[in-house]
Structures are given as structure tokens and as C-alpha cells.
Amino acid sequence: MERSVFYISDGTAITAEVLGHAVLSQFPVKATIFSLPFVETEGRARGVCQQINDIYEKTGVRPLVFYSIIAADVRQIINSSEGFCQDIVQALVGPLQNELGVDPMPVANRTHGLTESNLGKYDARIAAIDYTLAHDDGISLRNLDQAQVILLGVSRCGKTPTSLYLAMQFGVRAANYPFTADDMDNIQLPAALKPFQHKLFGLTINPERLAAIREERRENSRYASLRQCRMEVAEVEALYRKNQIHYLNSTNYSVEEISTKILDSFGMSRRLF
Amino acid sequence: MERSVFYISDGTAITAEVLGHAVLSQFPVKATIFSLPFVETEGRARGVCQQINDIYEKTGVRPLVFYSIIAADVRQIINSSEGFCQDIVQALVGPLQNELGVDPMPVANRTHGLTESNLGKYDARIAAIDYTLAHDDGISLRNLDQAQVILLGVSRCGKTPTSLYLAMQFGVRAANYPFTADDMDNIQLPAALKPFQHKLFGLTINPERLAAIREERRENSRYASLRQCRMEVAEVEALYRKNQIHYLNSTNYSVEEISTKILDSFGMSRRLF
Predict the structure, then answer these.
(1) Structural domain total, chain B
(2) Which end of chain A is more exposed for a tag (fewer CB within 10 A), N or C?
């Protein structure tokens, strides 16, 4: 079943995308996606409306439209299109209005925006990204007291993307430290990390997947050989167990899932950006 | 008006957080947030239910609960709590079921998960992060033909967080190049960038905000002085105009907004991760 799907917003359209994707994943739909952010004016809305109608006319199949727009006149133009239109936020605003006993104040749709009230939090997020970059891949072992999480693992097991996601999405200062081939003969926890045992979290990965990832980097190398990958993974897992470091096999998880599991494991509360 | 707010999911709870936040932002609620991911078992659900009920009993105010859980038995436990419970996905599933004429197949709630069908896309995302890190801050001007976007700007105007967000959220390979104080006497587009004019995008920023950000880094430095910031900003803006490079003032925008505006400006379609 094929459908054109529109995500439309007066903001970034990220919320519409995320929710629309969650809803659509329950149906056997092959979607052609149109993400249309910053639909803020009647003029742009009319253009979008035309685009929706054109597809309907050409294909005979109604496009699905998930939207979130505050201004009533802009919203109505989208809603008047031939698409199957769903206001993603409004469905929940009504019931909440009853519960809270106050009217909604839809002043501006800036879920992912920068406002005076969240500027401090935003600066903290940028600072977390700076910190994480400066402490990626063991570049610096200084100021680890300022880290909130220190990830461990072999090369290419997902440390860097996970650290960056923790910083970007959750404002967490995440350092990471790699174990290399040279560490394997006598693997141990570096002295610089020992004082921060309570912040350590290990990543591991299936050797077969690791070998495939490394092969992309350095074809036919010892580094990418299954034998080497098996050995490194076995060594770091033994180290995690010996030092009672919580660890996770990243093979079947996205960075979102890995990051969430790490924060969950530390019982850390999350900040929303 | 103060309320405890629960975001509960059998996955990362990121969707529940994003949507709940969008809905709540329309009401004057001071929220105390509890994000509870991976609520997958009846046991954990009962614990969460108890937590909700305890808060209600203690405060006399019903917690707000935004949830997304596939397994009916787990969902019912949450729904049986004393909280004001809203299934964030279900509100849209019903209408869509009518439109599509097929039943939903809620097999697993992994909006932010890694599945066989999205593994290739996921690998491309990780590759984009790798590329972006390797081309951050002008580190490397090689392989710029592989960049999809090349950001320009003075130090601390938002190039790095924006590049990383483009890679992380949208799978875009984003290089970035800084103009430094030394470039200012005779500012021009580096020869290495000229062949890629169509990929260039400039960032600029209000000198006052730039000075404040730089002051955090190097107190009382020339680098952080308002005079220096004004001069650098004026020079790069003149360069953008002279070379007909699209540019954006990042001062009042989040990385989500800046990234979205950049893709929009290039007419690039977005990929969802």
C-alpha cells in the first residue's frame, strides 16, 4: 500500500515526523515522505495545499497529512486540502484542557525552538557537546571529574555516536575511552579512570558485526579480522565483569536506545531539549 | 499550576517526551518530569503505576501520564493508575485505520529502534557522523566532494553543533570551516572551497551574543571583546554577500531550527532516523 505522507509544521516539523512515523509504523504503508517545516504564512500554506491536491489528482490516492500549526488561518488552509489531515497536537490538547480546567495558549509553536526561558538549558547543551568532543576517543583524560558518563569499548563499537547523542539530546557530558589492540595483552582499567568507577559504562558488540563495520574502514586488515574482533570483545567483556562495570551489547540497538539504556542504568533523570 | 508529568514507553520514550512537551507547552503548567523508558513487563508497569498513585496520594493532584505501549496487558496496568493517562499514538491510529481500511499491526514499539529493514540507513547515519567529525572546524579539506553541506562562520557561531545535528538527526554529511582572526585582514573564500560553492552555507550571529559566548571560553581576551566580534561578524557577512552564499543569523535559533532551515534552503529532502 503506497501513500504520500506530509509532515507539516510552522516549526521544524520534527515533532510531526516523529509522531507520524510512530503511528505509520503500525500499518503496512510504503510512504513517500514530504517534510515541510516553517509553513508560517497563508501564502506558503496555499502552496502546500496545492501540492497535496496535485498528488491526489495525479494518483487518485489521498495523501496522509500530519500537521501542527498554531495560526488558525494557516491551519485551515492545510485542513481544507484533499489530504487526510490530522492535527497531531490538538488530539491531546482537548482532553488536557478538561483535566487542567484552563484554556490552551497556543502562542508560538516552538517545541524545538530557542526561547528566553530555555536559553540557559540550551547553553548547557552546547557545553555538553563541547565537553564530549574534547573527550572523545580518549583524546583527553583531564577534567574527567566533570564527566557524567564515561563510555568504554573497543574501536567501532559505537562509543562516539552514543556519546554525541547523549550530549545532543540529553545535555549529558559523556567522555569515552577506547581499548586498542595494544591493550589486549594485559588489559586493565587505566589508572586515570579508576577514581570514576561509578561513571563507567561498557559497550560491547557481536564480533561478526564488529568485523563487518571494521572491514568498511580497513579492508582485509588484521584490525577487521573476525579472529581479532573476537579476541578484543572477549578481553573487554572480561574486564567489565572483573571490574563490575555495567555493560551493554550495542549490536541490535540504535544510539537512541543505547543512550536511553545508559541513563536508565545510572538512574539519571533526562532533560528535554 | 504544578503537575508531575510521566512519559512512559516500552521503547526509549523519546516520542512520548517530544509530543507531551509540545502539548504541555500550550498550558501554564510547571512540570516535574519523569521519563520512564523500557516499561515492557507487567512487573515494571505495576511499579510505575504505584509511583503514579503515590504522588497522587501525597499531593492530591493527578499526575499527567503520556504513554505509548504496545502490549495490551502492560498498557492496561498503566491505564489503571490514578494518573490522567493519554495514549499518544492511539489517538491517531483509530482515524488512520478508517482511512486505510486495514487493521494496525502493533508488533513492536521501536520508533527509535534498530531493525533489519533500517540497518542500511542506520549505517549511513553513523557514516555521516564519522564524516562530519573528520571535517569539523576545517580539520580536513579533503573529500569535500562527499560533503552535502559545508558550513562557514566565525569561531563559536554554532557551526559544530549544527553540523553534528545535521549528521545525527538527518544523516547529512556536513563539513564546516572556520574563519579566524588571522583571516580578517584580507578575508576571502579559500580556494579549496570554491569548487563547492553550491554546498556552502554561512552562519552569522549577533556580536553581543558572540562576545558573551566567547567570554565563557577566554575571559577578558581580545578574542571575546565586543569590538573584535563586531569586526569578524561584519567581515564574514560581507564575504557571504559578495560570494552570494546563503546565510542565517543563528542567534535566536536552536540547532534543530538552524539545521531545518539549512536543509530547507538547499531544498534537500530529509531522512528520518
Answers:
(1) 2
(2) N
- Residue B234 DSSP SS3: helix
Residue B50's pLDDT is 98
- Residue A188, all three cell numbers: 586493565
DSSP state of B201: E
pLDDT digits (tens, 9 = 90+) for B69-82: 989 999 999 999 99
pLDDT at A58 over 80: yes
- Do residues A189 and A244 touch, judged by C-beta distance below 8 A? no
CATH number reported for the structural domain that contains residue B217 in this entry: 3.40.50
Whether A15 sits inside 8 A of B13 (CB atoms) is no
ipTM here? 0.88
Could you list the residue range(s) of the whole structural domain that residue B11 is in?
Answer: 2-100
Instruction: Report pTM.
Output: 0.89
Chain B 59-118, CB below 8 Å of chain A: which residues? 62, 64, 66, 68, 84, 86, 88-89, 91-93, 95-97, 99-100, 102, 104-106, 109-114
Q: Does A124 touch chain B (CB under 8 A)?
A: no
| CB-based contact A252 B114, cutoff 8 Å | yes
Find all residues with CB under 8 Å of A241, minimum gap 6, and list them: none
pLDDT tier, B91 (very low <50, low <70, confident <90, very high otherwise): confident
